[in-house]
Amino acid sequence: MMSDTSAVIRTSSVIKSPHGFSTRRGGVSTGIFNSLNLGMNRGDDSNLVKENWRRFLEACNIHEEEFVCGKQVHGNYVHIATRDMARPAYGPGWMADADGYVTNERGLPLAVFTADCVPVLLEDIEGGVVAAVHCGWRSTVADIEKETIDKMVSLGASTTNIHIAIGPAICEKCFQVGREVIDAVINLLEGVDGADELYISDSENAGKYYLNLRGVVKKRFMMLGVPGKNIEISSECTMCQPDDYWSHRYTNGERGSQANIIMLDR
After folding, report:
1. CA–CA separation, 141 vs 126, rounded Å?
2. CA pair distance 153, 224, nearest whole angstrom
3. Best CA proximity match to 167, nearest among 50, 10, 53
4. Burial of 1 (0-12, 13-18, 19+ CB in 10 A)
């Protein structure tokens, strides 16, 4: 049984490294940040966020107190992380304008933040490489997936040995987008069977569509050589489950943040 001082997390059966996708349960924050807010720039009390991070790391079986994270800008830049870039939850520390991190250093946690966008954790145990990526629609159509795979391969990973966990995110029933997003997705997945099944027209709003962004992310990784059997997708939706997750759309931006983390074990 989980105690009331334990962060509630989600994990994936395809990832063997210490990892976790946070929920909003099991923390100490209050008000709109209730309770496991891990965002460091949302306006929450820094001491409460520090305690939330302690609980989250413990739940993920990560004993390090510092981790690599950055200023997510919805781009396709993936940074190769080294130990000197690790930082605590609050206070001075390195932060890059990046939406993904890759490392082959053991004992170095990599974290990305989400509140509707798609969190992706990747590992190649044999090659000794892990990655954490924030896939919003802009990052996705800018092909952050290829940037991630290329960086992992440069550190010794093999595409056929990479395993991928796609975490809780906004679902295809909630994620309404414009035609320009669909056109960008079509361009990204050109020639892929079933790509047109990842979006449907909104019958009540001309020029609007509903998009399965997690499905797009999976298709793109498969195009890049990762076997489909190595990819697991969470079925949980951040917008459908507001008691379990923060959703930027559901709260109109008045929210905390989930964190998603992975570390190559020592």
Report:
1. 29
2. 11
3. 10
4. exposed
Give the C-alpha separation, 108 to 83, whole Å: 6
Asked whether the beta carbons of 103 and 84 are under 8 A apart, the reply is no
Place of tokens 């290829």: 146
Task: Specify the amino acid at residue 113.
Answer: F
E strands present in the chain: 9-10, 19-22, 70-71, 78-80, 96-97, 100-103, 110-114, 118-124, 129-135, 163-166, 176-178, 199-201, 208-211, 231-233, 258-262
Distances 140 to 113, 166, 188, 224 between C-alpha atoms, Å: 15, 13, 9, 13
Peptide bond into 13 cis (omega under 30): no
Residue the block writes with tokens 């079925």: 235
* Residues linked to residue 211 through DSSP beta bridges, in sequence order: 199
Side chain identity at 101, as an amino acid letter? Y
Which DSSP category does 93 fall into?
-
Residue 199 exposed, middle or buried by CB count within 10 Å (0-12, 13-18, 19+): buried
Express each pLDDT in 72-112 by its tens digit.
Answer: 999 999 999 999 999 999 988 888 899 999 999 999 999 99
**Can you say whether residue 85 is alpha, beta or left, with left for phi > 0 and alpha for psi between -120 and 50 degrees?**
alpha
Q: What is the pLDDT of residue 13?
A: 98
Look-up: residue for tokens 């800018």?
142
pLDDT in tens, 163-179: 999 999 999 999 999 99
